[in-house]
Amino acid sequence: MDIKLEKVDDCRWRIPRTGPMRVDGLIFSNDELIKQVQGDQSLQQVANVATLPGIVGHSLAMPDIHWGYGFPIGGVAAFDPATGVVSPGGVGYDINCGCRLMTTALTIGDVRLSIKELILSLFRNVPTGVGSTGAVVLTKAEEARVALEGAAWAVKQGFGTTEDLERTEDLGTMAGADPSVLSERALKRGVDQLGTLGSGNHFLEVQVVDTIYDPKTAAAFGLQEGQVTVFLHTGSRGFGHQICDDFLKMMSQKSNLLPFDLPDRQLACAPLQSEMARRYLAAMACAANYAWANRQILMHLTRETFMKTLGLSPRDLRMRLLFDVCHNIAKHETHRFGGRTMELCVHRKGATRALPPGHPLLPEIYRLVGQPVLIPGDMGTHSYVLVGAEGAMAETFGSTCHGAGRVLSRSQALKRAKGRSISREMDDKGIVVHSKGKKTLAEEMPEAYKDASQVVEVVHAAGLARKVARLTPLGVIKG
Amino acid sequence: MQAIAYRRSEIQVLDHTADLGIIVKSPDLQTLFEDAAGYMMQMMVAPLEEGIGHDFAIRVEASDLEDLMVRWLGEILYLFEGEGQIVTSVRIEALSPCSLSAVVRQTPFDAEVHEVLCEIKAVTYHQIEVRERAGRWESRIIFDV
């Protein structure tokens, strides 16, 4: 399929419907960012998603779009429950990979002298890297409860408070989970990984708020200049990967029964009305819940480490959850489309939910201001806090970008890093880094990513989400 | 038992912004499957002490050759991710377009001895290819990392 790309305006690009595409593609981007994806296959992937039955509106992509597998990363697509499909490739292997931002009562002056010790303590106390096991050892019965209850399970065990739950997307528990549909392999991989950070692009970062763009919303979020925050990025670990893998294999095997041609086997899917779709969504909800419990436990470990290392009481530290948002998910949501209110199955693959002020799904504390949207940068540059805006409901089924997005392959990053010490370069910038994998730092160096500030400018200009605050890294731990 | 034999094949690493891809070119289909597994393990962990450990039989059923490659490598990956076992050698005993039987030798992963070079989360179906070209067999495989 030839990809024709038309510029709509300064932040929108269109792939007109052609061949088997059922709808147009719509990419939010600017002149510079769009150039970075024209050489790879991510635009083809936007077109491929547009061929899936029951797709509503556009096959969408956010400005952090990059080449994924099946769906592009940064892809969003909504499907009619009667005629549409659910695709594990539209959710991703790391189900409910997401971010959590914690605020503290500390200022940069409180941590400046002890940041090296603090980051080292976090590296020791938060399990990182491949094969790491968590502080929580589950029985299979408890694992099933984690899968059903999500972050609420973690809070019941003492890893946080009910206040944390109301500051988590879906209150930290996705409905419809059914552990009976899970494979033995998924259960086995999940049993000892709860409370682990993982590897690759997952991280825990201590930051300082360096710029406030929207003082009123920042105040409602409890953010102020000079304040120390902690950003956490991780997901459902091997548990989610195995669930995705299990269902991709099952759906791939039945692909020949679908009444249309799949342009990519990774887009294997099941009609939303089918038993296979019901089972996948029930399993996916289990992984989503596992991820929320995981981030809740990691927040607890972080809080304990801060208190012990800095000699603070909970009252001194006042580490509070600002919000927890998910990146990789498919959800039944209510949207206005074509003048009608419809229930749709919205896939977000490397994309963040962004609800505007007044949305009924918002917790009371954020009802008047809108949903916090958390956009991590890379370990060397800024992260952002945004707030959901009306444009997202009008154009993207309540979605916005999820991060910077890679621009270099891992092998290109390794070549660029040859002969350099990324750790020392980060140290020179005043950022303390501890990483378990030797290659990870090189693969994840800041040059490997797009400029997150450009990505954020596009969604701000397009009206999908508005900038609230910018965060600068002080120290990072990675797997 | 044949030692890990990815050296019998030509391996090309694909540049992929999100993930990691390889193209394996081999003199025959059996070597293609054996070397793809060997190279995947080499990407994941070091040192890879060839041929040590105990034998383990694997049988894989699939709908076609591409599906077979994804499932076969998925089995090797699961041994590492799910069972904590490093596969140190593989031998395909029987191979058809929809099934294979293999014996793999495996040894426990030891974090004190082994270094994880790359976490491969899954073997994807994205752009998967297994085909014969000019008397050689080749496969393109994209890994989720």
How would you concisely characterize the structure shown here?
The complex is a heterodimer of chains A (479) and B (145). Chain A is α+β, with helices and mostly antiparallel strands.
Question: Can you describe this structure?
Answer:
The complex is a heterodimer of chains A (479) and B (145). By secondary structure, chain A is α+β, with helices and mostly antiparallel strands. Chain A has helices spanning 31-37, 42-49, 108-111, 115-125, 140-149, 151-156, 162-166, 184-190, 215-221, 237-253, 275-310, 314-317, 390-395, 410-417, 422-428, 438-443, 452-462; strands spanning 6-9, 12-15, 25-28, 55-69, 71-79, 85-86, 98-107, 203-212, 227-234, 270-271, 320-326, 328-337, 340-349, 352-353, 372-375, 383-388, 399-400, 432-435, 465-478. In chain A, helix 4 (115-125) crosses helix 11 and helix 5 (140-149) crosses helix 11 (275-310). Chain B has 145 residues and is α+β, with helices and mostly antiparallel strands. In chain B, the strands form 3 sheets. In chain B, strands 1, 2, 8, 9 and 10 form a 5-stranded antiparallel beta sheet that branches. A 3-stranded antiparallel beta sheet of chain B has the order 4-6-5. Chain B is globular, with a radius of gyration of 14 Å. Residues 1-5 of chain B have low confidence and may be disordered. Chain A binds chain B through residues 40, 66-70, 73, 89, 93-94, 129-131, 185, 188-189, 198-200, 238, 241-242, 244-245, 248-249, 252-253, 256, 264-266, 268, 406-412, 437-439, 479, and chain B through 13-20, 63, 66-67, 70-71, 74, 78, 81-82, 84, 109, 111, 115-119, 121-122, 124-128, 142, 144-145.
